[in-house]
Amino acid sequence: MVDLMGRDTEPDLTEMMAGIGHHARAAAAALARSSAATRDAALAGAAALLRARAAQILEANAQDLANAEERGVSAALLDRLRLDEARVEAMARGVEEIRALPDPLGRVLAEWSRPNGLRIRRVSVPLGVIGIIYESRPNVTADAGALCLKAGNAVILRGGSESFASSCAIHACIADALAAAGLPREAVQMVPTRDRAAVGELLRGLGGAVDVVVPRGGRSLIERVQRDARVPVIGHLEGICHVYVDGAADLEMAVGIVLNSKMRRTGICGAAETLLVDRACAATHLAPLVAALLKAGCEVRGDAATQAVDARVLPAVESDWHTEYLDAVISVRVVDGVAEASRHIARYGSGHTESIVTGDAGAAARFLDEVDSAIVLHNASTQFADGGEFGMGAEIGISTGRIHARGPVGTEQLTSFKYQVFGAGQLRP
Amino acid sequence: MVDLMGRDTEPDLTEMMAGIGHHARAAAAALARSSAATRDAALAGAAALLRARAAQILEANAQDLANAEERGVSAALLDRLRLDEARVEAMARGVEEIRALPDPLGRVLAEWSRPNGLRIRRVSVPLGVIGIIYESRPNVTADAGALCLKAGNAVILRGGSESFASSCAIHACIADALAAAGLPREAVQMVPTRDRAAVGELLRGLGGAVDVVVPRGGRSLIERVQRDARVPVIGHLEGICHVYVDGAADLEMAVGIVLNSKMRRTGICGAAETLLVDRACAATHLAPLVAALLKAGCEVRGDAATQAVDARVLPAVESDWHTEYLDAVISVRVVDGVAEASRHIARYGSGHTESIVTGDAGAAARFLDEVDSAIVLHNASTQFADGGEFGMGAEIGISTGRIHARGPVGTEQLTSFKYQVFGAGQLRP
Q1: Is any Cβ of chain A less than 8 angstroms from the Cβ of B268?
Q2: What is the pLDDT of residues B119-177, one digit of tens each?
Q3: How far is A253 from chain B (nearest CA, A)?
Q4: What is the ipTM of this complex?
Q5: For residues B289 and B302, is the Cβ–Cβ distance under 8 A?
Q6: Among B226, B257, B372, whose Cβ lies nearest the Cβ of A125?
Q7: Which residues in chain A are contacts of B114 at CB distance < 8 A?
Q8: A208: which DSSP letter?
Q9: Average pLDDT for residues A121-143, to the nearest whole number?
């Protein structure tokens, strides 16, 4: 805003954010009383508006891209930032898919009776107010907003400053659709400033208005969130995922799973970063696995045994085992069976997703029990770590935390519950 | 410890606490691999040792009591601190009851198959490392230690400084029983210092070693925890519980439920603090309800309508609606039906437990849907807000948070889960 002297003035940020929190809380109460049909109507409306306003959204996006190019950002960031007609259409379709999911609210999660005649029922209810902090991808504005809304939650969106104009245009579609459906516009709010201090305010919970924060972004964002949050956080630090090829693995299956886990898409959190090969099959399996990776264009960094099978293998150093490459690079190590594989994963893994390839049911059972990650797979690609692939519908991310939600976070994970108790005058003795 | 000059020196607290965290993490890994039978054997052993060492425990308790008396603490605190043979026996029996609960680990929470043949299973696993911060009651050492252990979690106990000697004696029973069962003693650790800075260290998570903190105590403890915690917290701020007597309530049932909710035990979090009476039945129900409360020895603070029915009713002021008396005091207000009752509860309640008394099924359904508390009851006393009464076994408290656990927190709520996925070589397209 511009003051009387014509200077730009920041409105008081803390006060503005408190207002956003207050509105969110009120909207959450209205959403909790709304019907699934009303929330679905708002989602359908948002999808329609995203399509109808594609030109405006792309215009705002062009502005963001021009600003970003001027500031000389990386090509990768420009790509994440860029929208086109296909991406806007994908966003609209994503919102429609979320709309089509079953209502996650009012589910009877458990029901039982007590000897004194009390009947107890655990029923799903909205979480409340969710803060989403994300980076450059403007489509998160639509995805995250729609997911939270489907589960009856009010949401406060804090997108990256690079995508500010795009996100505002997308957000306007959702807010207008909410109003058209008779729901408060404030059910989905966007923080209307690029000021980074707003993130701190959100992480402190806006005076109790925020029930949970979901960060979506790179390591530095997640670390800031973990350091500064005073409210519960659902998120994941990183995905250092492992494939362990056991002595009893079928070679062909192992090659397929390793290539798919690493190379299908290298930039997603479920991509494998480390291959562990059982010493029991190293003589037969290691060379073909390495050859297949190299042939697929993957850089291989290995321990001494792995370097020995191919001259193109670079030496792996300690930091390689800790690294989420998110790129066509893999670290490879020979280990002594499930026991050492599971120790390696406990030491270097991030608790995200790990896979064992083996024909030995006992080895598989041991791996699936002992490895303490959100997702453990037997004879399948780590790239299945995804809410859609799990049949849970759209997701807001994969949680590596152990509290509330672990693994894919979809609409069901964005709910809480309450106990409803039915009596006939019972008193406690 | 004593240094070379003969002075008392505190060992470096941060370093000591980090060591506790490190040991807890290692113990958690061992517990996750242990069998239910082994954990149950440790619990049985702990109960036996509590009985066998009752004299030592009471001796330690006498020391705590003498210190506390010397410092002139309140009679109420002395009572919470005091153990006798019956209380030690109750502790041992409590540990045995927890042992007898079903194993909360390895439960298949959900299981489904995907069109591509993947079979997905959600299985309960331990939460990991739990920090418990509590106040004067030494029995929490046994209860909380046993509950966490039953669910396969390592626990770090930080009791009140007043009960330090008693808690050490109780803790020794558990640690010795763990060792006798072949489990690491460090599965249940007690912070071996009265230094309050240790609480801060625990709340900061000991370098990632602590997965969740559970506070048990009064408002000042909970507020410190909410302010300083950098790890997830499961706990409750307070229990401002309401009974709403609807226009269609049976008077006799209403009197019974109000008296039981308020007076059965006034000091527990599920005790009612406010009575709301529907204007529709105030003419017939208000006076007998107030008379019954006064007759039972309860102080009544009311709005104008309530003061009008009995001269002994004191005027309620704004702060009364916010107050958890934990005493024989109740605030009473006349409201316009379910709508105003539910608005009053949203404004002043703490999201713990509320009850409606009514013969009108529609009013009950509306109250149970609209009121956003962990527990909402129809025609039953708020004092049923208890894990044991819910049939969940022993509990560590009632959570008023919305994340992970809401309502009674028993062994099941002290678990996390993971996804086990069974394939036959599936690759993601």
Answers
A1: no
A2: 999 999 999 999 999 987 899 999 999 999 999 999 999 998 999 999 999 999 999 99
A3: 6
A4: 0.92
A5: no
A6: B372
A7: 389-391
A8: T
A9: 93
